[in-house]
Amino acid sequence: MFWASYLLAALAIILAWPAPIALSRASWPARAPFTAMVLWQSIALAGGLSMIGAMLVWGLEPLGDNLVSASAGFFTILLDDESAQTLGVVHVFAISAATLLFAHLLFTLALTFIRIRRQRRRHRDMLTLLSSPAADQPSTLVINHPAPVAYCLPGGARSVTVMSDGLMDLLSRAELDAVLTHENAHLHQRHHLLLWAFAAWRSALPWLPTSQLAQRAVSELIEMLADDEALRHVDEPTLVRAIAIVGSGALPSSPDALDDPLAETGRSGGAVRADVTGGTADVQSTAHRLRRLLTPLPPLSRLQQGAALSAAGLLLVLPPALLVAPELLG
Amino acid sequence: MATLGDLERTVMDLLWTTPEAMTANELRDAIAEAPSGEVGRELAVTTVLTVLSRLEKKGLVERERDSRPHRYRSVTSREDHTAELMHEVLVTAPDREAVLARFIGSVSEAEAETLRKLLGGS
């Protein structure tokens, strides 16, 4: 069983380090955002699985030739209070680490879910008081604010898209449509579930630089997917203009626009400015989105997409296969 | 039938537009007279009080404790609440990214300049 644990460890390291870095530097994801998204998901899932699997298999090794008999042996030790002598301290440590990592990942996922849901509910409560439904679209809310803002707040049947009247003043009807289709695509394609999973992965493993890379890449890819959806309804110059108008106005030109409530929360205008301009990820994301719309590249060929998707599938199959392989090979 | 959310909204609208604090009775009368009619012609004062206590818990409304009957006022203006909510949306923080999806994330001054040029040139 040792060789299986070493292979799993090698896979875990590849998926934690070189693979995400290569994928985040590649240029093809802009040509096939959906495929890239699938690949990111399988890297994250297979990465976690092989990390846990490697420690578990290695830890259980002294107890049996394969995972089933070794686990049975382990439970005998646990339940019947047998001595863990056969296992040795290092192996016990590996098993504990695998269990802890697994629990940590699950708990972070649950906690992130609860935290996000609470923030959304509070936000929706305030929206009920402060916004009014748009004239022709009941699931679109309009809020009184000069900054051109549009966003969507997922929440099952109560999902809403919010626009500021500052945005409505700046954009033409067609440009507004582009923005709304873009935001509704986020809701229809359930992008919030991806954001949730990768936000959880990032807060679970903040020391892993690739968890940041993955979250950034995923937030960028969902914007591209939503842009593609918008392009089915409006033409490309309209969408580009909408992005450019909102983007160039997104930075509050007078700090007063955001200043007042901050005095109460004890933050100075300067700090906010730094916050607002600090989002380097977003800056790149907007640039990538525009470049992709202005100089469109042909979508990835079927063959290339197939290859990427096969790689994703293989990644998902590999860790479980390595876990059970010692059994099959005797 | 109006939901609690609708009632909260009606009450807050009244408190935001009325400069002086109001009692639950005054609020009920004002709601009955409101032109938007649908929210509730015949509201019980206890219903108004329920709504007010919910709003108080949310930190939107404060009660003047030394007056009887209690008078209620909004804690801050509608504009301040809106600005605060938009601040939540506009300020970038990694843990906020999953809560909502913005059409355009934050943009640096240099980037905004490029976008303005793009608009000017087109």
UniProtKB/TrEMBL annotation, chain A:
Q: What is this protein called?
A: Peptidase M48
Alphabetical GO biological process terms: proteolysis
Q: Does the keyword Transmembrane helix apply?
A: yes
Family matches, as CDD domains: M56_BlaR1_MecR1_like
Family from the record: Belongs to the peptidase M48 family.
> Would the keyword Translocase turn up in this protein's UniProt record?
no
Q: Which UniProt keywords apply?
A: Hydrolase, Membrane, Metal-binding, Metalloprotease, Protease, Transmembrane, Transmembrane helix, Zinc
Upper lineage is:
Bacteria, Bacillati, Actinomycetota, Actinomycetes, Micrococcales
> Region Disordered: start and end of each range?
256-278
Cofactor binding summary note = Binds 1 zinc ion per subunit.
Residue ranges constituting the Peptidase M48 domain according to the UniProt record: 118-198
* Chain segments annotated as transmembrane: 6-26, 38-60, 89-114
The molecular function terms of the Gene Ontology recorded here are:
metal ion binding; metalloendopeptidase activity
**Listed cofactors:** Zn(2+)
Automatic annotation (TrEMBL), chain B:
InterPro entries hit by this protein: BlaI_family, WH-like_DNA-bd_sf, WH_DNA-bd_sf
User: One Pfam family name from the record?
Assistant: Penicillinase_R
- The answer to whether UniProt assigns keyword DNA-binding to this entry is yes
- Keywords noted in UniProt: DNA-binding, Transcription, Transcription regulation
Q: Name one GO molecular function term.
A: DNA binding
| TM helices/strands, residue ranges | none
Query: GO terms for biological process?
Result: negative regulation of DNA-templated transcription
* Family the UniProt entry places it in: Belongs to the BlaI transcriptional regulatory family.
Name it: Transcriptional regulator
Q: Which organism is it from?
A: Arthrobacter agilis
